[in-house]
Amino acid sequence: MSYKDLILESLTTRDEKEHAFHEITIANQQLVQKVITLQLKEKQLEAAMKTAQIQNETLTQAAEYAKAQGSPEHQQRVAELDRRIHDLNEERAEMYKTQSGNAQRLVHMNEQLQKATETEKRNSAEYDSYYLFIYLLWIKHVNSDKKNPRKPFRIKKLTASVKQLGTKCDLQTEQLREKDIAIQILQDELAAIQLEITTTEERNKKLEKENAQLLQRWLDKMNQEAEKMNEATEFYENFLEQARNVGQTIRKTSGGKWVMRPSSSSDKSKPDRRVHAATVVLPVSPCKKMALSDGELFCIKASSTGSMFATGGSDKKLRIYDAKTGNVTMALGGSLQSITSICFNPSDELVLGSSTDNSTRIWQLSTGRIRHTLTGHIGKVFAAQFTADSKRVVSGSHDRTLKVWDLQRGYCIRTIFTFSSCNDLTLADVEGQTLVSGHLDNNLRLWDTRTGNGIKELTGVHTGQITSVSISPMYPNGDALLTNSRDNTLKMIDLRMYDIVATFQAPSYKNGANWSRSCYSPDGSYIAAGSADGSLHIWNTLTRNLETTLKDHKGVMCGVSWSPVGDYLYTAETNKNVCIYNTAFQV
Amino acid sequence: MSVVFDDIISKKIWDGKLPIQISLNPSESHSLTEPIFIEAARCSYLPLVTEHLASIYNGLGIDLTNTDVWYDYQGEPLKWHYPVGLLYDLSGSKDRPWRITVHFQDFPNDILLKSPSVEAAQDIFMAMVKQADFLRHGTTKRVMNLSKNDQSQLWESLSLDRFDEYWNVNQHLIADSDSLRYVPLRIYLSNQCPVIQEVVSFTNEGNPKVLGDVLKDILPDLFPSKSATPMTHGIRLPLDTPIRWASQNLSFPDNFLHVVICNEDS
């Protein structure tokens, strides 16, 4: 055989021998695997059993412990019961104590009773012995009297005297008893009276204390009142000072007397501007009519103190007139073109006139000289006003700006762009923080002078250009702003809610000029406006009715101004005529 | 003359299996006292056997990652880097199943190579393959040119007993050509003697050599003689086996011929 066959044969034999164990080996392996897994399981079960045993032990321990202790409720009850037992024992001990005390007292009482009975017995025994003695005596006497014939008489006498003595004795005992009773009563009364005394003494003390307190409070109150009086007088002084400076906010009746309100709210920080009744009278007819100036009149203004008024017009001069007589006191020149608006400062030292030469001039009234010329606008200046402290001036111009000027520095410190030419402006408050301006585009605008920002734009108020804005003298307590417009209406606008409070119009009223100025009466009860046909219209602000129309002018009226004092109303027409009406309240 | 690749013999060589009875060391107490039986391939290695028995060993509580597992036959530690079939033939044991003992402690560091893990066995196996290739062709070009997949496939198919996959790769290495240089051959005499690995050429002055010639060259004292027989895979090799054919068909999976010389007994 070839080597191959030999090798093949050997391999086959080898395989037969060596592969004989195949099945056994496999079976053995499987069994071994099973044994291994079973051993593992056994271990796991043992471990589980151990843990279960441990748990069991702990649980039984816990259960035993709980049983021994009893559940918490039982424990509580047990504790409670213990406490109660304790308390009861204490009570019992106390009872015993009181009982022993009572027993002692009883014994004591018994002793006393015994003593008393003994004494009584003794007394009665004494009485008995005494009587016995008397009786024996009497018997003796009787026996001895049997020997004596005079004895019955003596016996009678003696028995009588004995009776007397007995009755006396009884009387005495009676009296004693009564006296005892009386003493008892008196003692009771005494006790009662003593009680009364103590109570009254206490009351007395209390009342004295109260008295002292009340005295103190009264003293304090008097002090307070005294202080208040001081404050009031101080305040009065201050107010008078202020009143002199702030021309537009003074409220005076005729003769410059103050009308004090009965309520206590009058002495607060702001001067009280409320006055009861209207203190101006409707004018009936002018007391003076004057034809003044060389040119057309454009504006008329009463001074802040009411001592004078001024007119300005196309003759470039600002004329100052005395309020009562109407005579010209000064003619202030210097303006290059016509004067469009006039304003006095609150102390009436300065007067300003805005002009169509794009500037505003300030004259000193004492010297008649120009103090400042405020240039800077590039359009006609139509309105200007002093602030309450006279340190600044605000002016509005047709160059669509408003400018704030500082008089100490002499130049413009703020320019506010207003989108539309300003026809009239007014300061809304005493400090000069808010500025209201009326414009060519029929709108009203409110500005903050410090920042220059617009606060509010009121559109739709008027349908024609606004020719005049004035602040009510009663602001901020009354309706606020009066606007006059080319749409022939006047409107009062509340500056807090920005709504129209009232509208004033009349068929005969027509606004004749772009700068026609209207105004409030000093007490805020009337508004006056001049019409295009020369008639002066006055409406009542409360009833909103047209009160009167006075036709004392022939031409277009350009301005009306009411003196802050309330005595005169000045009206001017373009055609140079000025009328003065007396509106003082005659007492 | 090309040598035919003999399927049948090759398959029989591959399928050779040994029954082994593994006893646990009685000095190491375990929950399992009975021996474990397993059939191991002759071409396999001891670490692979350990791996197959891993579940059983784990069940005994042995953590295989930390333990060095070693086997011994009658007190002699078994070299784990030799194929199992070679170890069996070397031991000279004739008993079936082969009774060996497994140890989990006291690894004999002085006798055995360290860390008998599957990865180490794989490394040694690949080293032998490369050596065989070098001896046959003079370069390790063929092995090195194998893709990594193929290289690992050699070992994987051995450990998973996949004959076709193994030969898919191995045929590139074993491919017969006329320009073979030397025979990859190792001769084992007995356990104490060192392994003989000598340079042996395939041809003897142009003629193909047979096994007898090769043995005569290497062990002139023993061959030719009647008392010594070359054995491999548990069979006796006829001396007229052509060495080229033997190298191709009778090699172990590491492409080496491992021949054990043992005493003649029938």
From TrEMBL, chain A:
Signal peptide: none annotated. One of its GO terms (cellular component) is Atg12-Atg5-Atg16 complex. PROSITE patterns: WD_REPEATS_1, WD_REPEATS_2, WD_REPEATS_REGION. Residues 254-274 are annotated as: Disordered. Residues 42-98, 176-232 form a coiled coil. One of its GO terms (molecular function) is protein-membrane adaptor activity. The keyword Coiled coil applies. Pfam families: ATG16, WD40. Residues 7-127, 146-230 form the Autophagy-related protein domain. GO terms for biological process: autophagosome assembly. Belongs to the ATG16 family. Transmembrane segments: none annotated. Keywords: Coiled coil, Repeat, WD repeat. InterPro entries: ATG16, Autophagy-rel_prot_16_dom, WD40/YVTN_repeat-like_dom_sf, WD40_PAC1, WD40_repeat_CS, WD40_repeat_dom_sf, WD40_rpt. This is WD40-repeat-containing domain protein. Gene3D superfamilies: 1.20.5.170, YVTN repeat-like/Quinoprotein amine dehydrogenase. WD repeats lie at residues 290-331, 332-373, 374-415, 431-457, 520-549.
Automatic annotation (TrEMBL), chain B:
It is a peripheral membrane protein. Its main location: membrane. Residues 182-261 form the Autophagy protein ATG5 UblB domain. It holds the Pfam family ATG5_UblA. One of its GO terms (cellular component) is mitochondria-associated endoplasmic reticulum membrane contact site. Residues 119-174 form the Autophagy protein ATG5 alpha-helical bundle region domain. The keyword Membrane applies. It comes from the Eukaryota. It is found in: Preautophagosomal structure membrane. One of its GO terms (biological process) is autophagy of mitochondrion. Residues 13-104 form the Autophagy protein ATG5 UblA domain. Keywords: Autophagy, Isopeptide bond, Membrane, Transport, Ubl conjugation. One of its GO terms (molecular function) is Atg8-family ligase activity. Involved in cytoplasm to vacuole transport (Cvt) and autophagic vesicle formation. Belongs to the ATG5 family. Conjugated with ATG12. This is Autophagy protein 5.
